Amino acid sequence: MQIEKIKINKDSSIAVEFSEIIAEKEEGDIYRKIRIRSNSPAHKGFYDVLTKLKPYACSMIELPEKEEKRISVKGITFNRTKEGILGVVLHLERKLDYTDIPIVIKTPCNIEEPYSNNGGYAGNVLDPGCASFLYTLMEEAEKYVSGFREQAELNLKQESVLL
């Protein structure tokens, strides 16, 4: 499974788009794209990683760290080169002072490592800490797709039973 997109919708539902190999051939693998959307909340670890991405998001769009409390990560688009180099675009919302409608911001594509060591495009290279959180988020998204969700809290009362 290769995670391609994660989106937190306005109604708090989560959409995950991924592809998986359905046939391996010499001329290239054949993939199937799948998109799921669920109203079930993700496990806490999923949301923790989104929060940990906020300082990196501020850096990518050249906002001071103090703005971190005003932004939220609402989506991530992952892409990869043929060589497997990871690229990522974060989809953000920033709260505004005089309206309830946030501004929507997409970061430039940031890559895990330069495309080439011999003068090729270096682009915006991801901070290693950010890349680590992104891989963790992809693992959390795979768990979500597999059915690992937030456990509902049961308010059970302890009662004594006389036998």
Structure notes:
By secondary structure, the chain is an alpha+beta fold. The protein has a domain at 41-145. Helices cover 21% and strands 33% of the residues. The protein is built from three helices and eight strands. The chain has helices spanning 44-52, 54-60, 128-145; strands at 2-8, 14-23, 30-38, 71-80, 86-94, 103-106, 110-111, 124-125. Strands 1, 2, 3, 4, 5, 6, 7 and 8 form an eight-stranded mixed sheet that branches. The radius of gyration is 19 Å and the shape is globular. The model has no long low-confidence stretch (mean pLDDT 84).
- The total count of helices amounts to 3
Radius of gyration from CA coordinates? 19 Å
Helix content: 10-25%
- Ends apart, CA distance between termini: 53 Å
Q: What order do the SSEs take from the amino end to the carboxyl end, as H and E?
A: EEEHHEEEEEH
Shape: globular
DSSP strand content: 25-35%
Multimeric status of the protein: single chain
Average pLDDT rating: 84
